[in-house]
Amino acid sequence: MTMDNVIVMGRKTYESFPNGPLKDRIHIVLTRTPQSSTTMYPNVFFVNTENLREKIDQYKSSKKIFVIGGREIYDLLIDYCEIIHITIVDMEVAGDVVFSYNLEYFVKNYSLLYESDPLISKKDGVKYKYFTFYKK
């Protein structure tokens, strides 16, 4: 879905990639200190909130733009998203970050375009479903 397109994320999400940037994607990484962030990858750009729109505008006519997290980035950009792809995973996990939106929020504020049948991960048996919503 994101292959050959643009992915927008926060610095912590970018740093969570164990093998570096994802192949065949342009990475726009939102950080409070882009001037101190360096990269050896030509497809990775560090920006702050002031120049995020300018960087997205460079690509939006020729590529799809995907916001992939984390929570602060979703909170900042969700109102600009026309299509929302969500995976709901039926699993309790330990952590200190909680997604700000639940399925009911999207049902109320967006039109449902797609809902998968319940799926089960072959690797660990976890149940999940895919949803796609379009802004009303």
UniProtKB/TrEMBL annotation:
<dbReference type="InterPro" id="IPR001796">
    <property type="entry name" value="DHFR_dom"/>
</dbReference>
<feature type="domain" description="DHFR">
    <location>
        <begin position="1"/>
        <end position="135"/>
    </location>
</feature>
<comment type="pathway">
    <text>Cofactor biosynthesis; tetrahydrofolate biosynthesis; 5,6,7,8-tetrahydrofolate from 7,8-dihydrofolate: step 1/1.</text>
</comment>
<dbReference type="InterPro" id="IPR012259">
    <property type="entry name" value="DHFR"/>
</dbReference>
<dbReference type="GO" id="GO:0050661">
    <property type="term" value="F:NADP binding"/>
</dbReference>
<dbReference type="GO" id="GO:0046654">
    <property type="term" value="P:tetrahydrofolate biosynthetic process"/>
</dbReference>
<keyword id="KW-0521">NADP</keyword>
<dbReference type="GO" id="GO:0046452">
    <property type="term" value="P:dihydrofolate metabolic process"/>
</dbReference>
<protein>
    <recommendedName>
        <fullName>dihydrofolate reductase</fullName>
        <ecNumber>1.5.1.3</ecNumber>
    </recommendedName>
</protein>
<dbReference type="GO" id="GO:0046655">
    <property type="term" value="P:folic acid metabolic process"/>
</dbReference>
<keyword id="KW-0554">One-carbon metabolism</keyword>
<dbReference type="GO" id="GO:0004146">
    <property type="term" value="F:dihydrofolate reductase activity"/>
</dbReference>
<dbReference type="Pfam" id="PF00186">
    <property type="entry name" value="DHFR_1"/>
</dbReference>
<dbReference type="GO" id="GO:0006730">
    <property type="term" value="P:one-carbon metabolic process"/>
</dbReference>
<keyword id="KW-0560">Oxidoreductase</keyword>
<dbReference type="InterPro" id="IPR024072">
    <property type="entry name" value="DHFR-like_dom_sf"/>
</dbReference>
